[in-house]
Amino acid sequence: MAYLRNNKLGQLKCPSAPKLRLLTAVCQLLVLSACGSGNSAVPVDRPVAQVSVAEARKQDLPRLVSAIGQIEPIDRVEVRTLVDGRVESVLVSDGDDVSADQALLKLDSRRALARVASLRSALDGDRATYRQAELQLRRFESLESSEYVPEDRIARQRSELEVAGARVERNKAELQLAELELEETTISSPVSGKVGKLLVERGEVVTIDQTSPLLIVNRMSPIYVAITLHADAISHMQRLATLDEVHVSIKPFGQEGRESARFAFLDNEVDSMSNTIVLRATIENVDHRFWPGQYVDARVELGADVGVIVVPEVAVKLGPDGDYVFVVDDELRVEHRPVSIARTADGLSIVSSGVRVGERVVVDGHVKLLHGHAVGIASTR
Questions:
Q1: Do both 344 and 374 map to the same domain?
Q2: Domains in the chain: how many in total?
Q3: Parallel, antiparallel, or unpaired: how do β-strands 375-380 and 11-13 relate?
Q4: What pLDDT, in 10s, does the model give residues 34-73?
Q5: Among 42, 145, 166, 352, which one has the highest count of C-beta atoms within 10 angstroms of its own C-beta?
Q6: Nearest to residue 339, comparing CAs of 313, 307, 373, 364?
Q7: CATH number reported for the structural domain that contains residue 149 in this entry
């Protein structure tokens, strides 16, 4: 213990208790500071820490853009009537899967049938009149040289034949229209898809000018996913699209297993309010995993960084001076090493500097590690 000399009395005396406590605290701080430095050696009696490591390796890392996508039907058809009438029968139920041209509803067709029968009868009569006029004209023309039939009578007969022919053509057109209206009393689905809630019931009268549809059919396979991206990506996507290198994958939120989608097109305008543009991709959706209106976790791959050094994302830690990793040397001691990270994607970080290919970095067991700490390798990833 140190002693101080009292100049007046010429005696030695022990320092006071407060001063002694202050001196002890300063010494402890100096010791802790020396041991806690990132690049200082650890005490030799510190126990060996068990860690998991992974090797830094060189590989290609895709440029991934994560976004929220929304499922949209390629075809969404509001089924409406083309003729007025009363619903005679409903041939589908809510939520049914239907094929193209499958009958959905039938309207009362009695008026249309009567009109078709009437026009067919009128057409038969006009055709008979036409044949009669044609025979009469031939008779007159055969007698023209004997001067028994005046020329003006022959001319008038030719006119009557033309009128009869015009009536036949008019009635044929009216009959075709009536037959078409008869066909339209059976309302069919224009596309294959899934029926939504029926918006009409048996016995209701429907008209061609009503505002609401009878039902809606959504095509379920294939189907679109619409992904909103920043407009800065337009030129990059256009270049990659020509090379067929825009890759899209999606999955429902909360589920595993991504499905690939094929790039379809970019929208034809940028949203000026948000400076974004919509990319659409096509999914086969054979199992109807995705539904119109559903939000999904989407990833768009826009090329790749080729031949870069990567380490697992969990190996990179953030300290007061920036990113760092613990590198395990051949003597099984860790080195606290600063690194520069270019970007992180899919659980991997691209290291611009600080780590070489083949070096081992700690991915688990960082707690209480210090520079120079002896470690044991529990596992290698």
A1: yes
A2: 4
A3: unpaired
A4: 444 444 444 555 788 899 999 999 999 888 888 999 999 9
A5: 42
A6: 313
A7: 1.10.287
